[in-house]
Amino acid sequence: MIVSNIINNHDSKWMEGTGPFSDIVISSRVRLARNIEDLPFPQHMTEAQADEVLNQVAQVLVAKEVRQAIGNLEVVSLRELSALDRQILVEKHLISPMHAEQVESGRGLAVRQDEVISIMINEEDHLRIQCLFSGLQAYEAWEMATKVDDAVETMLNYAFHERWGYLTACPTNVGTGLRASVMLHLPGLVMTNQAQRVLSTLPQIGLAVRGLYGEGSEATGNLFQVSNQVTLGPREEELVNNLTSVVRQVVEQERSARNSLLQNARLMVEDRASRALGLLTHARIMNSQEAMSLLSDVRLGVDLGLLNKVSIKVLNELIVLTRPGYLQKLAGAEMTPTSRDVKRASVIREKLEVNNEEDK
């Protein structure tokens, strides 16, 4: 029932718009890659071995001591879910696009009702433990992920080497197996033509910059993911602290850019945000790219105090609600791109209208 409720409910805890720097940092995530000792990596497993991993994880998560430590997680096989349901899980950042395409035996997901904790089973590694928080809470996400990791490790033997650390399918994850990432909204840097200069320096200090859905995705709506590239050498805590420190610097540069816009182009920014809100509340057809761009403009207007009666939580929810999977779930049928554009515009109008009614 947990997975079913998650698929049918657009809301997620990371959408709350709370936590430090939540006007710029949408969410923070920590992922730990782990593998079970004496079993091949997922790419080389037989169906029987893949099922064995899925069953072992399911048995661990129902153990009393594990549930007391991390709560109740439901395990589901991906082959039991429709392609649309898997797409929705991608849109909610609970599974990767690659995992959504893998419906072979043994591919699965474990997730807690609040979606803070999830575990991809037999993706690239046997376990991908993920914790997702609102705002800049990478350290808190790491603490929670460590808690899950410790609870699971009491009942499973991980593949571990004294020199190399945790062994993973991809060499770039060997060591800590940790990937910490934050999702940033950076319209100020983009509008002042500073984004390229600021973000291009991050790979030089061991950080990667990607789009909304991680590797291989484009940055839309001025949303960028920043994550660590190095997993071997530094301790987990050092990796998380380094990411947090750099993100704080990016946040300060974004704030400076926003202040510059307020001082030098306030009317232009206010007009842009107001026009965006007008389009979103009245348009009858809206493609995904346009929706993300307009939502970004409105969000900036809200953050700068130029617009009111629009909550950040609603804008965060619309990031997911306007995606193709959720639109088709709401419609209860597969849709053509054109019909999705019509439905997207309708959903945005209704959501913003409800938000305005609640604020009256």
Give your account of this protein's structure.
With 360 residues, the chain is of the alpha+beta class. It folds into 2 domains: 2-182, Creatine Kinase, Chain A, domain 2 (2-Layer Sandwich); 265-359. 48% of the residues lie in helices and 15% in strands. It contains 13 helices and 10 strands. The protein has helices at residues 2-8, 47-62, 64-70, 83-91, 97-100, 138-153, 187-191, 195-199, 236-282, 288-303, 312-321, 324-331, 337-359, and strands at 25-34, 73-77, 108-112, 117-121, 127-134, 160-161, 165-166, 178-185, 207-210, 223-228. An 8-stranded antiparallel beta sheet has the order 2-3-4-5-1-8-10-9, covered by helices on one side. The longest helix has 47 residues, at 236-282. It is globular, with a radius of gyration of 21 Å.
CATH homologous superfamily of the largest domain?
Glutamine synthetase/guanido kinase, catalytic domain
**How many domains would you count in the coordinates?**
2
Shape: globular
Q: Counting H and I runs of at least 4 residues, what is the number of helices?
A: 13
Which CATH top level class of the largest domain fits? Alpha Beta
Content of β-strand = 15-25%
Largest sheet: 8 strands, antiparallel
